[in-house]
């Protein structure tokens, strides 16, 4: 907290305040790195699934798979903490392979028309061998590659753009769709959008969360929706928490959405139950129409 930092610095206590805060962070990091390396991934890692909905019509198009780690040492750890840790410690590719295997298994239990979005990390796309292994894993599962939206962030592209670009092209020509995740944060650049053919652009939730109170966020969202329309690709908004925001985004021309307003990420069993209920309702509607 910057204000506190300044206040304390007048009294000469700033350095201590800052360093203890920083030390806390480093301690937590070390604990996560350590627990990760000692962890039994096949038992501690799982996925939750968040619905992706068409904003006009409210139709379910699929889910985003989100990684969960319940560490036997630390308890639940956020992916915002353990994914960077996995990258740091060099085990992220092993982790991605385990998560992808769970994702592909989940897809086998879902109707064929539903898509699954799966997040790739920087390491996954900045190494040809790793990316190729993932593709082999998808092919061997028997799942139709074209049901997958592979999500990558611009930050991931930056670490080695040429290799990442080559890998993205490879995955795309194998039939996968590629989404540019967290657009608008970090080093958003139209040159990335230009140099790589994305199938979807996901507008970061930092804009969506405050777009009802912040005109500039709303304008940025509208511009990205327009950009996507002009490129003939889909825009996706993450972090839709209210009916008002959903309506505003729909009016701005955003194609797809996800967020707590529709559903929080849920374990597979809950999601499958939801799909079955939807199907039941659709069947009942069909019977009513036919009869
Ligand atoms: P992301 O890919 O941008 O995922 C969206 C995040 O927004 C998720 O956080 C999701 O739970 C959260 N979210 C969804 N709807 C709402 C909403 O209405 N309001 C708010 N405030 N948040 C919402 P989560 O699950 O904590 O994941 C955080 C990040 O960790 C992800 O951001 C992604 O970058 C990374 N991640 C998650 N799973 C994986 C994975 O399997 N592999 C890799 N490489 N990264 C992953
Ligand atoms: Mg994502
Ligand atoms: Mg995102
Ligand atoms: Mg995000």
UniProtKB/TrEMBL annotation:
Signal peptide extent: none
Coiled coil (UniProt feature): none
Superkingdom to which the source organism belongs: Bacteria
Ranges where the EAL domain occurs: 29-279
Name by which UniProt lists this protein: GGDEF-domain containing protein
Organism of derivation: Metarhizobium album
Residue numbers of the full-length protein present here: 356 to 646 of 646
């Amino acid at each position: 907290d910057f204000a506190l930092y300044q206040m304390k610095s007048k009294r000469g206590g700033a350095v201590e305040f800052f360093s203890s805060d920083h030390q806390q962070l480093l301690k937590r990091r070390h604990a996560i790195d350590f627990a990760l390396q000692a962890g039994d991934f096949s038992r501690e890692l799982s996925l939750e699934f968040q619905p992706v909905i068409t904003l006009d019509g409210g139709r379910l198009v699929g889910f985003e798979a989100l990684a969960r780690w319940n560490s036997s040492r630390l308890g639940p750890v956020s992916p915002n903490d353990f994914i960077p840790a996995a990258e740091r410690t060099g085990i992220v590719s092993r982790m991605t392979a385990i998560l992808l295997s769970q994702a592909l298994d989940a897809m086998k239990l879902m109707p064929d028309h539903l898509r699954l979005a799966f997040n790739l990390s920087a390491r996954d796309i900045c190494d040809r061998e790793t990316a190729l292994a993932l593709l082999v894993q998808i092919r061997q599962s028997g799942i139709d590659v074209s049901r997958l939206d592979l999500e990558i962030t611009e930050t991931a592209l930056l670490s080695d753009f040429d290799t990442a670009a080559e890998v993205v092209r490879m995955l795309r020509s194998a039939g996968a769709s590629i989404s540019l995740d967290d657009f608008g944060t970090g080093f958003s650049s139209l040159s990335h959008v230009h140099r790589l053919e994305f199938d979807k652009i996901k507008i970061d939730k930092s804009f969506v969360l405050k777009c009802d109170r912040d005109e500039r966020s709303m304008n940025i969202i509208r511009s990205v929706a327009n950009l996507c329309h002009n490129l003939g690709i889909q825009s996706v908004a993450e972090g839709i928490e209210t009916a008002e925001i959903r309506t505003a985004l729909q009016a701005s021309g955003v194609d797809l959405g996800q967020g707590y307003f529709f559903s929080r990420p849920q374990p597979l069993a809950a999601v499958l139950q939801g799909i079955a209920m939807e199907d039941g309702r659709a069947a009942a509607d069909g019977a009513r129409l036919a009869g």
